[in-house]
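Hi W.,

Here's what went into the run:
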Amino acid sequence: MRVAWIGLGAMGWPMAKNLKKAGHEVLVYNRTEAKAKAHADAFGTRAVPLEAVADAEAIFSCLPTSDEVAGVVEALLPRLREGTLWIDCTSGEPEKSRAIAARLSEKGVVFLDAPVSGGVAGAEAGTLAIMVGGDEAAFERARPLLAALGRRVVRVGPVGAGHAVKAVNNTLLAVNLWAAAEGLVALAKAGVPAGVALEVINASSGRSFATMELIPDRVLDRSFPLTFKLGLLAKDVRIGGRVVEDQGVVSPVFHLARELYQAAARELGEDADHVEVVRMVERWAGEAIR
Ligand code: NDP
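Here's what came out:
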């Protein structure tokens, strides 16, 4: 199939490569053109200007927020063809995705929100979890393409539902990470090294992705690699807050997470890695996790 990919960031770069590896013809567009050219050189994809993306049967977008997605949709709208499938892998906003889907439907283009989880490593390995919002027929059309990107591909509801699930998932990640940092810093102060505490926590009911992978792999060795910008996680937690608010759910934990991650992004900078919030907890406590 002729597929186009918009946005070769930390996630889009390996995901577009995996579509090519699965045997598709892949056109790549990136705002910074040099990255698209480098992708074409490295993987045999084809770097194209934005207009040429409209020639594809399926168009993927993987951009920071739904606002950038809406921007490229507007720019491409006059050229889009009836029957094209638009698959948005951005961690976006349910409300904005419904507006984008309505706009695309004016041209007979069908929209799916298909945000992903699994990080850069999962994108690289093609083992992402993909949560899809949209109608069933479009989902079935997209399924073979999504199979090249992820191991668990689930339709979770109509347009916007994928983005709602993703926002809740990432709020859970944010809460778990912050809470684990507070607990481990306290244990370190009390004389229990983090490695020892994690050995038992990770065999117990308090374990999470933060305690099993993020803290052991990135905090204990103080490497804090940049794979997922804090500004993007803060955005997800903001969306998560809106998802629970829209349903009238009493949600003090989601609200506190929103405040904390907004403050952290301001303090550490939007481009810091998300795991660096641990440094804030450590600074407040006057103790490092080790
Ligand atoms: P990056 O910041 O690494 O990449 C962003 C991409 O968007 C770049 O290709 C950038 O182009 C492009 N872009 C930014 N602004 C515009 C614009 N106005 N018009 C056109 N293109 C633009 O982000 P990630 O790849 O990390 O994240 C992408 C999405 O995936 C986000 O929604 C994020 O929340 C989500 N996500 C990220 C994960 C991660 O671990 N990193 C995991 C799961 C989901 P340029 O090269 O020119 O800057």
